[in-house]
Amino acid sequence: MTGLITMDDLTNEEILSILDDAERLLPVARGEMYLPLLQGRILGNLFFEPSTRTRMSFETAMKRLGGDVVNLGDVKTSSVVKGETLFDTIQMVDGYTDIIAMRHPRQGAAQYAQDAARVPILNGGDGAGHHPTQTMLDLFTIKQAHGRLEGLKVVLAGDLRYGRTVHSLSHALIRFGCELIFASPRLLNMPEEIVSDLRSQGANVIETEDLYGSMADADVIYMTRIQKERFADEDEYARCAGAYKLHARHLSDVKQDMIVMHPLPRVDEIDPSVDKTRHARYFEQAFNGVVARMALLCRLLGVTVPAKIEGGAL
Amino acid sequence: MSNEHSMRRVTAIRNGTVIDHIPSGQAMRVLEMLGIGGATAVPVSLVMNVPSKKMGSKDIIKVEDRELTQSELDRLALVAPDARVAIIRAYSVAEKLTINLGDELVNVVRCTFSNCITTNLREPQSHRLKVVQRDPLQLRCHYCGRPQNLDELAKNVL
């Protein structure tokens, strides 16, 4: 394994093994113990697009494990604004660091960077393409709640066209035999080639505009934001924004153990009334970004997470 | 140029390359993919929609005084994968070449997806399209993973 560009870079066994590592690392992620597994290692954070959770959780993950982080910083003040190619930027950072986490507005940028680099690349999102580290934390959250990944019924709702998190997650879930329901406004349907890919792999996929009618026997409802920055046309954005607004009153007939997830930030698609219900899991999900990325950093750097964690005192 | 001379040029050339069994109507795209256009100095003959026992009808191209290379010919896999190619020397067939569609097209065409990283022409890495299916032909970009629109690909020849 070199880097993590798409979920295809991991086998199901590797996914489960990394999630097990993450589970054991929870006390370290919470700061309850110190375990410097990555002492002396440097992570390069290259975010060519805005990011709060992904960038900060990578940085937290590295520091919780005793490693260091160097940041590209604001693209506007880096060499990128002077016209430096991604290839050249990667050549430089490759020499400075042991591993790179990267987000880029262009699709395919992560694979391009991996082909140019010696160190592993962790794809933190490439255009509307893939976001596999988000998928790993999503899978961790689902497994935490349900004790398994196999055979669950998962509703993915909102912007399925431009939402890279749902692209990567769908590909991963069908590998565990999950049933998928895609609920989206017609303009934001899951890209045809992805639906066709999933079906050709034997996936049970249903497409609908009716979110509320799809929730009754769901195990997971995964909401996404309508991403304004993905629209060239303001009118088109206005038509799609606010298509779904999940409120606590919509959850009266759902399964007791159903969880509501969201990659955040949310705008209006989940009403704050949902936060207090037993179903809300999005803030834990955001925290899980740290522990999932800790496990991934260890795996890609070839560092074994001990079977029994006994960290030093803080 | 006499009509008789023109006919002879189409039927036989002294030295160069003959590309036969091009699917009917694809000859112009073949020329485009080979980068043969108005600025080409050597004589180029083209016949379109001529009867063919094997194909019903076909196109033929003859390029004089230029021996196309295997890598140039491999580009044709996109539009004429079953074309037959002969290198002509002194009016005789000196070599027969076949068009090879490998597992990947490297630096032949650019990805057709407008937001692919490779659309930045200053990026120096190779353009790579993977062959995911041969018949009918389906290609995907190595980087962005998007399926390629074959009609648009001819415009993206490098």
Question: How would you characterize this protein structure?
Answer:
- The complex is a heterodimer of chains A (314) and B (158).
- With 314 residues, chain A is of the alpha/beta class.
- Chain A folds into two domains: 7-131 and 287-300, 3-Layer(aba) Sandwich (Rossmann fold); 132-286, Aspartate/ornithine carbamoyltransferase (Rossmann fold), CATH 3.40.50.1370.
- Chain A is 35% helix and 14% strand.
- Chain A is built from nine helices and nine strands.
- In chain A, the strands form two sheets. A five-stranded parallel beta sheet of chain A has the order 7-6-5-8-9, covered by helices on one side. A four-stranded parallel beta sheet of chain A has the order 2-1-3-4, sandwiched between helices.
- In chain A, helix 7 links the parallel strand 6 and strand 7 (205-208).
- Chain A is globular, with a radius of gyration of 19 Å.
- Chain A starts with 11 loop residues before the first helix and ends in a 14-residue tail after the last helix.
- The model of chain A has no long low-confidence stretch (mean pLDDT 93).
- By secondary structure, chain B is of the alpha+beta class.
- Chain B folds into two domains: 3-98, Alpha-Beta Plaits; 104-156, Aspartate carbamoyltransferase regulatory subunit, C-terminal domain (SH3 type barrels, Roll), CATH 2.30.30.
- Chain B is built from four helices and eight strands.
- In chain B, the strands form two sheets. Chain B has a five-stranded antiparallel beta sheet. In chain B, strands 6-7-8 form a three-stranded antiparallel beta sheet, with no helix packed on it.
- Chain B is globular, with a radius of gyration of 17 Å.
- The model of chain B is unreliable at 1-9 (pLDDT under 50).
- At the A-B interface, helix 4 of A face loops of B.
